[in-house]
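look at this:
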Amino acid sequence: MLSTASDDLRAEFNMGGIKGRVVFSQPQTDGATAISVNLLGVNETLKWSIRQLPMIYDGNAALSCSASAIGELFDPKMAKIAPNYDSRCQNDNNTKFHACAVGDLSRMLGNITADTAKMNHTNQNLTIPTRGKDSIMGRTLVLHSGAAPKACALITPVSPMKTAVAVFRAPIGGFVYFRQVEGMQDTTIFVDLFFVNNADSQEDFNWQINQGLLDTDASDFTTYCKTLGELFNPVNSHSQNCNQEMHRNCPVGDLASKHGNVTVSLASARQSTTKAAFTDSNLPLSGANSVIGQSIVLFPVNDPRKPTACAKIVTLMTQVTQATFTADVNDGVSGHFKFTQRSPFDPTLAEISVRGLQNLAGGYHVHVYPSPYYKTHLTASDSCQGFVAGDHWNPFDVNIKGSPANATGIVSWQDRRLQ
C-alpha cells in the first residue's frame, strides 16, 4: 500500500463495522492523484463519494453521514450541471476523469467490494485536488450501502492540525471553525451559523475579519461590535486582482472576496441548514499574521457600515478528562484512564495506565452514573454493580453488534504487563 507522506490526506474509518483508511496522494498541484484503499469489514457492494462538508460524529451513520450533516456531492467545477453528465461520467467512459464531479468516486473508479477493499487506484488522468481552493481537505468521504450511508470519515492531513473557533451568540448563533497544519498554506473554514430569533428564514451576509477585540461588557448586541478596528490586513494587500481564484492578492481578512457571501438560516436540529466549507490559501493560524485574536464580523450585504454580529477568533483548546483509580478503595488497583480530544473533528485518544489487576484484566466500560460519594462504605465489586454504576453509557443508542472487531491500542503499565 502507499505510504503516508506528510502532505498526503487520509480518511480514517471506524464506523458501521468498517475499519481502515483511504489515503489521497498528489505530488504536484493539479497533477494526478493516487488513492490507496485499505478497509476491513467490507462484505457488500458500497458506493463511495466525497461530500462538501466535514463530518462530526453524531451517534451513527444515519445521522453523522446524512446529506443534512455532510452536504451534497463535492463538485467545485460544477460538472453535474452539464446536460449530458450521466452519459459522460461513466466508469467505462474514457472522458470520465474530466467529466465527473471531483467527489463522484464510484463513477470514476467503480464501487468498493470485498475484492477491492484493499486496492491502489492510480491513473494519470485522475485529479482529486489535495491543495488549493478546490481541495478535498476538510471534506467527508462517505460509503453508501444502497441509498443509506454505511460509514463516513473526515479527510484530513496526516500531520496534526491547529484548530481555532469563533463562537457567535446573538442575534446570530453558531460557530466558524478554522483548521490548518502549521507550515502549510491551506486553511479549512467550516461555517455553521443560524438565527437565534424570529428572523427571516435565510439571509446572505458580507463577512470579514477585523482588527481588535469585542466590547464583551456591552449589554446590547448593537454596540457589541463597535469597538472593532479596520479590516485585518497585516501585509497591506490591496483589492486589485483579489478574487476567489487569487487569494494571495487579497487582504487576509477579506473573506467575502475570497469565498463570496456567507448564508445564515434558521436552526434545524441544533444546526444551520446552510452550513458551508471553504479552503483558504491566505489565512494563517500561526506566525506574525495569524488571525487568532482578531474578530469575524457579519454585515448586511446592502449596508457594510452596520455590523449585525461578531465573534472573537480563539484557539480551540484540547479537551482532556481522566478517571483515576486509588488502590485503597479499588481492591489494590491504581492508575488512570485519560481521554484526549484535540477538536470535534479529531478522534478521542485513550491512554490507559493501571496497576494491581493481578492478571485479571478483562473488558472496560464507561457507565451512566458517577462514582458515589459513599463508595468507601462499599467493596470495590459492589460499588461497580449495575444498581450503583448504572448501564453502559451509550447516549447515541449504538448497536454494538455493528461495531468493528476488537483492535490493539497503546496501553502503558508497570513492567509492561497488567498486574
Q: What stands out?
A: The radius of gyration is 24 Å.
